[in-house]
Amino acid sequence: MKLSAPEFRAMQSLPRRLGQKHFEMPIFKRMGLNLRGKDVLEIGCGSGYGSFLLNQLEAKSYLGLDVMEEQIELARKKYPQFQFILQDASDLSQFENASKDVVIIFGVLHHIPNWRKTIDEIARVLKPNGRLFLEEPRGVDLKAFDFLFRWGHPDTDFGLQALEEHITKRQLNIVHKQWTPLLTMYHLKKSA
Ligand SMILES: C[S@@+](CC[C@H](N)C(=O)[O-])C[C@H]1O[C@@H](n2cnc3c(N)ncnc32)[C@H](O)[C@@H]1O
Question: Cα of 149 to ligand 1 centre, how many Å?
Answer without folding.
Answer: 18
